[in-house]
Amino acid sequence: MREGQQAREVAIPCALLLAAWETLMKGEPLTEATLCTLAGGAAGGRWLLVTLAQLPQVSLLADDEGALSLVWEQHP
Fold first, then answer.
1. Whole-prediction pTM value?
2. Residue 27 resides in a domain
3. CA atoms within 13 A on the CB side of 32
4. Percent residues over pLDDT 90 in the chain
5. Which residue segment(s) compose the domain that 24 sits in?
């Protein structure tokens, strides 16, 4: 913990979230594997996945093998 940080505070890695969002907005599916690579590990990748999946116009997809990906559905 940093000096003065309260136990209930969390740090949000905004740079990672922005990089994932910009990639998603290009219109191509963003796979869990790509998110894990971007975040430097499975925990960060899954955090990005569940955080972005909550946004409007973002859909969570699963393929036949259960691999997850996100897509941004741009509406006119």
1. 0.80
2. yes
3. 16
4. 68
5. 14-72
